[in-house]
Amino acid sequence: MPSSSLTWNNKSTGAQNTKSAGARRSLWRFFQFRIGPWRVGPTILDRYILNEIAQPFLIFLLFFTVLFVSIALKDVIGDLLSKGIDPLKIGEFLSYLVLENLTVTLPVACLFAGILAAGRLSGDSEITALRAAGVSFPRIYIIFVFAGILSGACVLVMNFWVGPINAKAREDFQDWLNTYHSLSLVRPGRFLGRPNFDGLSTSGQDIYAERREGNVLKNVQIRKWHSELDLINSEKVEIQGQQIGIGAGFITQIIHADSGELLSRYTGEGEPEKFIRFSDGYLIELDEKQSGYQVTNFENGYLDYVIPPPPKPLGRLNVNATNFTFFELIDYINKLRDGGFEINPLTILGEMGTGVSDYQTLTGIGQDSPLAQSMPTIVMPSLDEIRRQALVLQMVAMNPDAEVPPDIQMPPGIPPAQFAIMLQTLIEHTEKTILLFQFEMHQRMATPVVCMLFFFISFPLGLVVKRSGKGMSFALALGIFVAYSIIVNLFTQMAQGGSMKPAQAAWIPVVLLFLIGVIVMSRRTDGFNPLFFITVPLRRLLVWTTRPLHPYFRPGSRFWSLYQAGLNSRPVVFAATMKQKASDRIRALLDRRSGQTDRNDS
């Protein structure tokens, strides 16, 4: 009876193993296909080692992704959890962070996952068993390199499209959280001004709420005000003997309601729009000349108040290269260099850091001012054309009688010398932006190669050496990763500073990492010739291209007869003769010494 029970358990276990093996085979069938008479796909050895790599890879990828996302969340976790944000919005924000950080965590997971997989295979003597079965180190090595190619392809997609799109979405969400979501930022019993206030803006708003009930504010009030600084007409105060203008300001609008709730809708252009729906209140509006006011009563209804968009800083190019896809970077660089980039004319003033009070005709310029809103967007000329205009304006500034050419558009109230300095500053900023974008392009192309090289290094590092153990492998991997990070940061600063070309700064660390991998592989594995392993594709190509010539060099062919005749040529015969003469002399010398020894013995 025990034997029958034992037999039944073995059958059950065998059936389970067969079912599990069948399930595994069914997954790998998606990677098997035929090309004519050949069947292409991973072998049993490939599948086994790839399974060993996949498990630690997913674990390390999850660990590092959670770590990086936690670091990014520490600045906004309070606003997300304590201010009534919709859970769906929080989940959307987390998805942006995860997809954005995968471009960083994937290469790190490649290095440590490869080390752990190679260490387990080596620690359990499976590498030794494979070597005893005739499997060479390069054959095992190819599987790790293939895993690096797969991960590099994923990183390529993330770097070129997915990562930048999610980085832009994450930044837009944070802007919405800090500016549009004013209702959630309001503290009971306190006035809250609109954040990110631009010094060039002429208007602003304050929000007050007596208390808060969930996502609804009670006894809420919004005050919108106008301010300006005119050094000529403004009132002044004397401080330490100096006259300082204090400007002018007054409230232009007051909204008071018993309750207000934040809602959202889509405009006719499909853009999301945030607004506050006030109930049971009134609206008081005052014109800027302070000549009258108007009262709107909505005690028995509601009023939708669209929250103004955050003020965007004038005078700066968008240099956040991480928010652009790869092909958008190329288009951005071409427009900056060859012309066609759209820009606000006030950007040229902002490049100089020009204050509003520097020019009387520009008093009150800001994003919210009528002048800024009415000024059309212009198309920048090419970088060479801007240099030419700056040079012409410098020559005009040195000659008082010269006039500005009509093809150069001058802002009103600005002398040619000052505008030439502004253009020169804009040129420097544009050149720096082009360098940043070029470096970002090369960095995105180099990162997939780094993933493959991390797997390239992980296999020899993961091999367990009896004297050092597994701890030494992780220590070496950590040292290589830290050294690589330091070199990348150093070269990044050099590229941003203009002391190194973007392509050199992005690819030199990759070349150094490849050389380190070759050295580590040649020292920690026997029977591995780096030059032989690297030139395998070239030698196979050489054999394939010279295959039509093989019949002419077979034994019995004409070229083979000429080759045999060459062996019997005079140089060969002369060498054989000299070799025979040397052998005869050595034999005679040995015979002579042998005869002398016999006579001495007698």
The unreliable regions are 1-24, 194-201, 350-374
Helicity range of the residues?
55-70%
> Can you list the strand order of the major beta sheet?
3-4-5-8-9-10
Amino-to-carboxy terminus distance: 92 Å
Outline:
elongated
What is the succession of H and E elements? HEEHHHHHHEEEEEEEEHEHHEHHHHHHHH
Largest sheet: 6 strands, antiparallel
Strand content: 15-25%
Evaluate the radius of gyration.
38 Å
The assigned structural class equals alpha+beta
Number of strands: 12
Mean pLDDT across residues:
75
Number of discrete helical segments: 18
Give a concise summary.
The chain has helices at 2-28, 44-73, 77-82, 87-123, 126-132, 137-180, 182-185, 326-338, 346-351, 370-374, 383-398, 416-462, 470-497, 502-524, 530-534, 536-545, 558-567, 570-601; strands at 33-35, 38-40, 190-193, 203-213, 216-228, 236-239, 242-245, 248-266, 272-286, 293-306, 342-343, 378-379.
